[in-house]
Amino acid sequence: MATLEIRNVTKSFGAVEVLREVNLAIGDGEFLVLVGPSGCGKSTLLNIVAGLLDLTRGSILIDGAPVEHLEPKERDIAMVFQSYALYPSMTVAGNIGFALKMRGVPAAERDRKVQEVAELLQIAHLLDRKPQALSGGQRQRVAMGRALVRNPKIFLFDEPLSNLDAKLRVDMRHEIKKLHQRLRTTIVYVTHDQVEAMTMASRIAVMKDGVVQQFGTPEEIYERPANTFVATFMGSPAMNLLDGAVAGGAIALDGGARLPLPTSAPALAEGRKVRLGLRPEWFTPLPPDAPAEGALEAEVEVIEPTGPDIYAALRVGGAEVMTRLPAGTSLTPGEVRRFRVDTAKAIVFDAASGAALVG
Is the pLDDT of residue 70 over 80? Predict the structure, then answer.
């Protein structure tokens, strides 16, 4: 496998700058996920790494050597597309082995490699079928097999699961992760789905408007988001953001409630406008007769049972707050309850810039 370094990559289409000074580096065998909303530049960056698009400025290095001047076929990279891009007239075996055939690999060796990859992906029984006779998940496995059989330095995945139904997406997510753990391949994976990013990645690059907002492990991204965009984009339900101001060593929330400043917050000037970030799972309902001091009072608006959890939407002052509570929690829409909030983990963001304020 290989290391990959993206240095100061900028891409413009005419006067429109779609990538701006992107810097990322992943080690041999890492699983990098590029995640962000549609139009953030993640697929453009993947295509630049693959050599399908030229960059405007910057450099792409594989194993320390610049490759931006090389054609795609010279970079030793394999790409799995969202649309599968299979040849409809060829069998599964023909699709998987096509690149080897074009390279002049002898038929016996080609058949052996195709069989090995098919068994790895559990599609050996499908080798004589054509793509139109396959399910979406089976077609995706064939597309992965076509990439794997080449044994490239780096695998690129461009939203490969977006055409699958919800259950199949979960199944294929597990299969791709198991494959990575078994082969220790270097992978760059593009998705707009933050659950895919959190569950699959060694490291995540969160992108918005062509700029990397944060680059780190899933734990770092979730627990210490760099700004309010990352905080609300990563996590389901999203992190709650409550407006307030610093007052007497606490945060006075708009609406009158007060919560202590998190220990991670730096020294902040009295009256400074901030936004307090609270994950939904940091709320615990208290008995109706619990004392008000140190608790957050809220009206229960909506309850959404999911099986293992209950999502409860609360009204705190003028803001809606989403909470994740254990199944069986007794709440009634319309009632006013007090909640203990784990502010030790909370993040304080600057109200104007949205940047996290860390001591």
Answer: yes
242 vs 317, which has greater pLDDT?
242
Find out whether 154 and 76 touch, Cβ atoms under 8 Å. yes
| Total count of domains within the chain | 2
Q: Do 331 and 202 fall into the same domain?
A: no
pLDDT at 69 over 90: yes
Label residue 299 left, alpha or beta by phi (over 0 means left) and psi (-120 to 50 means alpha): beta
Q: Which residue has the higher pLDDT, 183 or 54?
A: 54
pLDDT-derived band at 359 (thresholds 50, 70, 90) equals low
Can you give the C-alpha Rg of the chain in angstroms?
Answer: 25
Distance CA 162, CA 283 (A): 33
Cα–Cα distance, 2 to 99 (Å, whole number): 21
Measured CA to CA, the distance from residue 127 to residue 45 in angstroms comes to 33
DSSP state of 316: E
**Token pair listed for 138:** 């089976």
Burial 4-15 (b: 16+ CB within 10 A, else e): bbbbebebeeee
**Rounded Cα gap, residues 35 and 229, in angstroms:** 12
Model pTM score: 0.90
Q: Which domain holds residue 270?
A: 240-350
